[in-house]
Design brief:
Elements lengths: L1 E5 L8 E5 L9 E11 L1 H8 L16 E8 L11 E4 L13 E5 L4 E2 L6 H5 L2 H14 L7 E5 L6 H11 L2 E6 L4 H6 L4 E4 L5 H8 L5 E6 L5 H8 E9 L10 H6 L2 E4 L6 H12 L7 E6 L3 H9 L8 E5 L12
Parallel strand pairs: 8-9, 8-11, 9-10, 11-12, 12-13, 14-15
Antiparallel strand pairs: 1-2, 3-4, 3-6, 3-15, 4-5, 5-7
Helix pairs in contact: 3-4, 6-7
């Protein structure tokens, strides 16, 4: 099989397209022919060596799969060859998805939503599971509450807006002005241009000084320190960013705030919940760009570029026949 292998930690040119042995499913495992994967910040963090102690080289990385079951190992009962599936590979536990085939344990795999193309499904598995764990599993966002979602035009943010609206929350989000229409199109109620206005001031103005019930941090920096200023009493903050610098949380004390940190865990249940929202028309990932597997380096370089003009996710067509639903090419 063809696979993009990471032979050294570094820049996007660290990948090499190689012929590798096709994996064989063992007991409880499923062999999937990968039609599509996608690029996440986690992918370039792995590539540049942020987790070098957890990734022995050479490695096949990648954290999203949408494809078709090729074969199943002994004891597999939930899937058969020909089934369309999607999932997030177990992070730091074996080869990833930048390859034509991937083997995974049966219990982390789910049936792909029929209304999504492989490119769309691969653009939702990791970010969707992360959003579900953050908003549903950790902060338990409720109907009628309000939430500030940072980076609403990004891969995680645009999915978080849709999930929050499906729950029944009022959504505030930070984006650049040229992304206002996009953020509103996926459900944002209040959009804030973070380059022109302090988001804390905007939230307090729009909530008559009360603040929001939840802040979802997808950007890092000083977001943890500043979030309490935008929170209502008993507010919650959830972050998916590993932040190295110290954060001053003194303002959280007066708000009785709670903080949650998410590094997503793989399971079928979250994907099935997301599939329900997809089939109800309440959730759809936006694919902002598509690259072939051989151009993984270009995709990584683009995602890492600040203000790259992207909305949503970068998808990778591992199978050249992969197409966006409703697209001509």
């Amino acid at each position: 099989m063809k696979a993009m292998t990471l032979n050294s930690f570094g820049g996007p040119d660290a990948f090499e397209l190689r012929d590798m042995p096709k994996p064989v499913p063992q007991a409880g495992q499923v062999l999937v022919r990968v039609h599509a994967t996608s690029i996440n910040p986690l992918d370039y963090q792995v590539r540049r060596g942020d987790y070098r102690d957890l990734v022995p080289l050479p490695a096949i990385t990648g954290h999203d799969v949408s494809g078709v079951v090729e074969a199943v190992g002994p004891g597999v009962t939930a899937f058969s060859p020909g089934d369309e599936v999607w999932y997030t590979p177990q992070i730091f536990d074996g080869p990833g998805s930048y390859a034509e085939y991937h083997v995974a344990n049966e219990d982390i795999i789910a049936r792909k939503p029929a209304s999504l193309s492989h490119l769309e499904a691969a653009s939702l598995s990791l970010v969707g599971g992360t959003v579900w764990e953050a908003l549903v599993g950790r902060v338990a966002l409720r109907v009628g509450e309000s939430i500030l979602i940072h980076g609403g035009a990004g891969g995680v943010g645009h999915v978080a807006i849709q999930v929050a609206k499906a729950i029944g929350a009022k959504v505030f989000t930070t984006v650049r002005e040229d992304n206002f229409a996009f953020a509103r199109s996926v459900g944002a109620d209040v959009v804030i241009d973070y380059t022109k206005e302090d988001y804390v001031d905007a939230v307090l103005r729009e909530t008559d000084g009360r603040g929001v019930d939840v802040v979802f941090d997808t950007i890092g920096g000083d977001a943890l320190s500043r979030s309490p200023d935008a929170l209502a009493q008993l507010g919650r903050v959830v972050s998916i960013v590993d932040i190295a610098q110290p954060q001053n949380l003194i303002e959280a004390w007066g708000k009785n705030a709670s903080f949650h940190f998410v590094f997503t865990r793989q399971n079928r249940g979250k994907l099935d919940e997301l599939s329900t929202l997809v089939e109800r028309g309440q959730l759809r990932p936006h694919v902002g760009a598509v690259y072939p597997l051989a151009d993984i380096a270009l995709a990584h370089a683009r995602l890492e570029t600040p203000n790259n003009g992207l909305r949503g996710k970068i998808a990778i067509a591992v199978d050249p026949s992969a197409r966006l639903a409703g697209a001509d090419s």
